[in-house]
Structures are given as structure tokens and as C-alpha cells.
Amino acid sequence: MDSPKLKNQLFINNEYIPPKSGHFLTLRNPRDDSILSEQIPIAGKEDVDNAVVVAQTAFKTTWGRLPGVERAKVLLKFADILEENIPLLARLEMLAMGQPIGVAMELAKLGPPVFRYYAGYCDKIYGQMLPEDGNGEYSLVQYQPMGVCAGIAAWNATMIFFAHKVAPALAAGNTFIFKPSEKSPLASLALGDLIKSAGFPPGTINIITGGGETGALLASHMNIRKISFTGSSAAGRKVQQAATASNLKSVTLELGGKSPSIIFDDADMENAVHHSSASFLLNSGQVCVAASRLLVHRKIAESFMDQLKARFEELAGAMGDPESPESYLGPLADRAQTERVLGYFEQARKDGVRFMTGGCKHERGGNYIQPTIMVDGSPDSVTWTEEIFGPALSIRIFDTEDEAIQLANDTSYGLSACVYTSDIARALRVTSLIEAGNIAVNSNYLPGHTVPFGGWKESGNGSREAGLAGLKSFMETKSVLINMKVGPRL
Ligand code: NAD
Questions:
Q1: pLDDT-derived band of residue 35, with 50, 70 and 90 as boundaries?
Q2: Hey, is 200 helix, strand or coil?
Q3: Is 388 in the pocket of ligand 1 (CB under 6 A)?
Q4: Taking the domain 10-255+460-478, which CATH number applies?
Q5: Which atom of ligand 1 approaches the CA of 210 most closely?
Q6: 260-441 adopts what CATH topology?
Q7: pLDDT of residue 245
Q8: Predicted TM-score (pTM) of this structure
Q9: Does the Cβ of 292 fall within 6 Å of ligand 1?
Q10: What is the 3-state secondary structure (H, E, C) of the chain?
Q11: Nearest atom of ligand 1 to the alpha carbon of 387
């Protein structure tokens, strides 16, 4: 595919328009730090206000008034258009954040099914009617859209975040403002043309770009009713605070993790090695659910770690140019992320952590980091407790099931976990005791769109994306009492 022309305008009210702020970001190619664009618009207050006004109008006059069956038609058409444009969207993701093209294609394919899934709900948002209880009063419970909703995303899988936020919100009848990360804005900006050709009324989906300041304008806006945030726990806290301090808007937080993976001695070793290496290193470890704390039973520890080390070193050879279909691993998203990860390695050395492999830049230089395994870190060392968000795994050895569960739960995060065992009773026992929102048995955890997704503890705030829970998180509940007897009730 030829290099696509990059969009350099905001998409508001079905039109590409320059930012009223007059400000732009520079975006670099993480492969070699060359400049991709110096014209990524930064939406300022006037731009955000403009997006909110047109989204309110669409909510009150067009999209918000459409019957469910009509909303479904547009969502289905959009899913088809997204699917036709997977190569374009994948290429733009690859350029901006260095995701190898093969990986970017697979991730972009996950978007259209989400729109199809939620299109199915559009005309099935049933309420309830309760039986008359003898006092002449009938009760109805209705589920209704909230109004203007907004989404703020991390950089590592933008098209999935877009789908998981926008599809349920629109299916419920809301209108939307989406802000991708400043590290990966290109595919989102390209969506404007696709949104328009799907037939969404102007103002239904608006795409704005910018950094944390733009996100903060959304979080604190008085006329946005709901915000769905995917990103770090630190920024998530700020979003929650801004939402509370402004109009108490509803908030969904999808935050960071330091997920455990427990390998019992009865596990299928090859399967556990595969998922702890190739699956873990997907997207160079820049995956929220990546199980970056590995707990292995003492009986198999030596052999497991030898095999894992060999696999990590083999995969270092599959690190390459993101444009090449042969590359499985690419660079990290940008220089700031690279420096952050290298900073963790430096701290690990000071803390006496041992590197079994990696722990430095890859020979390709730039933002390429070696797949890394760390061992012998104390339970309070920063590389054991903090999210690194890169190709870095930490390992500890355990002796008993109770000890493994205690170590797994000894974290402020609770996003996901993996359990490897051939004993189904143990799998059920252990999964029930782990404090996390998403657990996989005998594989890594891959979020899907049909079951609720979200974290416990500091990985979330109790709200969920995906599945029916994801749809409900974009709706208000209304109880209506109809009195058949006129007159005083008490
Ligand atoms: P980040 O928190 O730095 O940024 C995320 C988004 O928030 C960006 O769009 C950014 O512009 C915006 N932002 C930053 N400060 C803000 C503020 N004060 N108010 C409003 N918006 C603000 O996160 P990141 O570095 O882009 O992404 C990595 C993090 O995201 C990791 O912690 C990772 O685990 C997490 N993540 C979580 C999930 C999940 O579903 N739980 C998925 C992917 C990534």
C-alpha cells in the first residue's frame, strides 16, 4: 500500500476542520524517530465546546431520535466500511506507534465485529413493567441514553478502544466525542471519511486530537454526561477527579495492570512457555492485560525458565521493521516510553534484580528494547510492583498453592491473571480466589467484546466495557410510577 495522506484536521459535525486553538503536535515514527507529521491538531476549549454543541444537537434532533432498528442499519454499514479499510487503519497504527503490520492487521480486524454485536442490541433495549400491587400503581423501568458521551484512549490498541467505547454508546442512542492518544492519532483521524460515508448524521461521532490537556477539557466539561477512559491509573484518577469536580458525570476507568501468571507443576509446559513468551510479548509487551509477574512452581522452575529464556532470545530475532510482515516485535511507541522502560531496568540493577536475558536496547537501537526476563527481585522492588508496559517479565518461584495466590494478589492492581494447570478443580479454586476482573486458564487473557471487561482494585472503578454491561454503562435507568387512583397516597 502507498503511504496514505495523513489527516491534519479535527473531525467535527461530519466535517474536517482546522483546530480553532491554532496549535499542533509533532508525531514521530518510533522506528527511527523521523517526523511523520508536525500538523496533528490539538483541540482546545473552543474546539471541545464546538464538538459538544454539535453532539448535543445530534442527540436531540437526529441520532438520539432514531428508532433502534435505524441505528442498527447505520452501525452495520459502518462495520462493513471499517472492514474494507482494515489495511489503511492498520498501516496508520503501524506508522504512529510502531506496531508490526501483521499485528496491526489482526488488531484492526477486531473492531468491525464489535459494531455488529452492538447493532444487534439497538432494537432490544427492553424495559420492565411490574405487576399492579393492589394500590392502583403501575411501575415501569426504562433504560435510556445519557446524551453526549466521550472516550479517551491509550495508544496501544486504538481501534479496539474506539470500537469498545463508541459502538455501545451509539447503540444506546448517545452521541460521541472520541480522543485517541497523542501517540497514535492517525487511524482515528482517518475515521472521519468512513463515519460520513456510513451515513451517521452530523455530530453523531466526532474525533478530536490532542494530549492530556484536551482530555482534561472533556473530563471537566459540564455538558458531557459520561466519560469512558482507557489509560494509566495516574491519569484515570485525574479524570475521575475532574468528572466529580465538574458535573459528576458517569465515569468508566480501564486502567493499568501488573497481572500475575501462575504456572503449576502439572501445567502443559509447552503451552505455558508459548503464552509466557510469544503471547506475552505481543505488541512488545505494551498490552494492559500482559501477565508481567510470572509465578512458577519450584519443581518445574529451572526447566521452565531455561525454555522461556531460549524462547525470549529467539523472539528477539523476530524484532524488526514494523513495515515487514516478517516482524513479530517492533519498537516501543516513542522515545518517552523507551526511556521509561530503560529507567526501570536501571532501577532494577540498583535493587539487585538479576537479568536472565535482555535488560537493554536491542541492537537495532532507537526505540527497540530487548525482550527481558528479570528474576530474584524482592516483592517490594519497583520492577515487581509497578507496571513497566514493555517487553519485560519478572519471575518469582513458589512452593504452595496458597503462597502463589498470596503473591498473585499482593498488588494494588487487579486487571487480569492467568492460571496454568491440568487440574480443573485447582483452576476453579484458584480463579475464584484471585482478585482480578479477567482471568484466563491455560492461555494469556485476550479481551473479547461479548463478556464484560474491566479491572478490580486500582485497575478500574467497577464499571465495565464490553458485553451487555458495556451497553448498560452508557444508559440511565428511569422508574416511572403510573397512579390509576387519583388522590393522596399516604
Ligand atoms: P496515559 O494515561 O498517559 O494516557 C491515556 C490517555 O489519557 C491519552 O489519550 C492521554 O492524552 C489522556 N490523558 C492524559 N492525562 C489526562 C488527564 N489529566 N485528563 C484526561 N486525559 C488525560 O496512558 P498511556 O501511556 O497512553 O497508556 C498506557 C496505560 O494505559 C497503561 O497503564 C496501560 O495498562 C493502560 N491501558 C489500560 C487498558 C485497559 O483496558 N485496562 C488498555 C490499554 C492500556
A1: very high
A2: coil
A3: no
A4: 3.40.605.10
A5: 11
A6: Aldehyde Dehydrogenase; Chain A, domain 2 (3.40.309)
A7: 98
A8: 0.97
A9: no
A10: CCCCCCCCCEEECCEEECCCCCCEEEEECCCCCCEEEEEEECCCHHHHHHHHHHHHHHHHHCHHHCCHHHHHHHHHHHHHHHHHCHHHHHHHHHHHHCCCHHHHHHHHCCHHHHHHHHHCCCCCCCCEEECCCCCCEEEEEEEEECCEEEEECCCCCHHHHHHHHHHHHHHHCCEEEEECCCCCCHHHHHHHHHHHHHCCCCCCEEECCCCHHHHHHHHCCCCCCEEEEECCHHHHHHHHHHHHHCCCCEEEEECCCCCEEEECCCCCHHHHHHHHHHHCCHHHHCCCCCCCEEEEEHHHHHHHHHHHHHHHHHHHCCECCCCCCCCCECCCCCHHHHHHHHHHHHHHHHCCCEEEECCCECCCCCCCECCEEEECCCCCCHHHHCCCCCCEEEEEEECCHHHHHHHHHCCCEECEEEEECCCHHHHHHHHHHCCCCEEEECCCCCCCCCCCECCEECCECCCCECHHHHHHCCEEEEEEEEECCCCCCC
A11: 32
* Integer Cα distance of 479 and 211 in angstroms: 39
Give the residue carrying C-alpha cell 472503578: 461
Nearest-angstrom CA–CA distance, 248 and 246: 6
Radius of gyration in angstroms for the set of CA atoms belonging to the chain, rounded to a whole number = 24
Strand pairing partners for 369? 361
- First vs last C-alpha separation in the chain: 73
- Ligand 1: distance of its center to the CA of 42 in Å? 17
> Which residue out of 160, 220, 252, 288 has the highest number of ligand 1 atoms within 8 Å of its CB and is therefore the one to mutate?
288
Residue 443 has pLDDT above 80, yes or no: yes
- Whether the CB-CB separation of 467 and 171 falls below 8 Å is answered with no
Domain boundaries defined on the chain: 10-255+460-478, 260-441
Mean pLDDT, the chain, as a whole number? 96
Contacting residues for 54 by C-beta, under 8 A, at least 6 apart: 12, 13, 202, 203, 206
Q: Which of 93, 182, 254, 387 is catalytic?
A: 254
In this structure, how many other beta carbons lie within 10 angstroms of the beta carbon of residue 169? 28
Residue 134 has pLDDT above 90, yes or no: no
CA distance 270 to 441: 15
- Specify which residues 392 forms β-bridges with: 372
How many angstroms does the Cα of residue 461 sit away from the middle of ligand 1?
15
Q: Give yes or no for a contact between 281 and 391, defined as CB atoms under 8 angstroms apart.
A: yes
